[in-house]
Amino acid sequence: MKLAIVGATGLVGREIIKVLEERHLIPELLIPVASPKSVGSTISFNNTPCKVLSKEDGVALKPDIAIFSAGADVSREWAPRFAAAGCTVIDNSSAWRKDDNIPLVVSEINAGILTAKDKIIANPNCSTMQMVVALAPLHRKYGIRRIVVSTYQSVTGTGIRAVRQLENERKGIKGEKAYPYTIDLNLFPHGGKFLPDGTTTEEEKLVSETRKILAAPTIMVSATVVRVPVTGGHSESVNVEFENDYNLAEVRNILENAPGVIVQDNPAENLYPMPLYAHGKDEVFVGRIRRDESRPHCLNLFIVSDNLRKGAATNAVQIAQYLLANHICRK
Fold first, then answer.
1. 113 and 180 in a common domain
2. Are 177 and 288 contained in the same domain?
3. Catalytic (active site) residue 298
4. Is the pTM of this model over 0.90?
5. Among the options 50, 87, 126, 298, which is catalytic?
6. CA 43, 44, 46: angle at the middle one, nearest 5?
7. Do residues 111 and 135 share a domain?
8. DSSP state, 312?
9. Phi and psi at residue 187, in whole multiples of 5°?
10. Among 205, 241, 284, 314, which is most buried by a count of CB atoms within 10 Å?
11. What is the mean pLDDT of residues 237-246?
12. Is position 330 within any domain?
């Protein structure tokens, strides 16, 4: 099996390589692909140096699977080219998520919709991903009517420039900025670009992607995205209104048995999810599970996950594993 990683030298690309090694998914040929400035350099995979190739050289090798994490513009241009060469593309960007003909997949929820005809598969936004992993089993049981979510998103979600900005600010060093404001000792309610109605693109993703993944177009979603000076993962305060009433003990039991979820919820011992716990892990952590007494059928949750892992790299690798295990892609 030949596996390409497009964007192999970026934050998510390097995390994909790490996840492949951890899960012992070692292809016969790994094809690292990156921008022209990185072509010719080497990366290490499974203790072996691999030369970074151009996109043209990568597609010429006709990989069986290509995991893209190089931005929407690159994906729009190159994912169809890889697909035309017989490759199955798993794309981490926003390029294909809204396309009705492209499946938007979270491995624990809806990988079963994939077929051999799906040559491009979209990976959801990281903030959507962790939320729906926790909410999907509750939706199946009680039916979700409305979600109100406020996110506290790591600078790693913006990329290496944002991480460097935070590190430089903490050291008192002037340097290139990814954000319009200082992020150290600060936060701002701004993720992505502002849309004409005052929402941001990151907030809009939480709405549209949640509906598509859960196959529930009538769910109402209200989102506010906040960027915080954290590198370990994204956190979310989530209020859910169900169609039907619920039993709190049953909710806990459902979450404790949900694939990919770890419940951390013991207020007596100050146990609750934090990026400090989630960093470097694949699971979605859920805590502060409590009834919202202000409205009928409402539940409060706090959800945390490493956005570079489950929010991007891990889910992409899990999709690749599903394709291989079910003989869906060429190999």
1. no
2. yes
3. no
4. yes
5. 126
6. 150
7. no
8. I
9. -155, 160
10. 284
11. 97
12. no
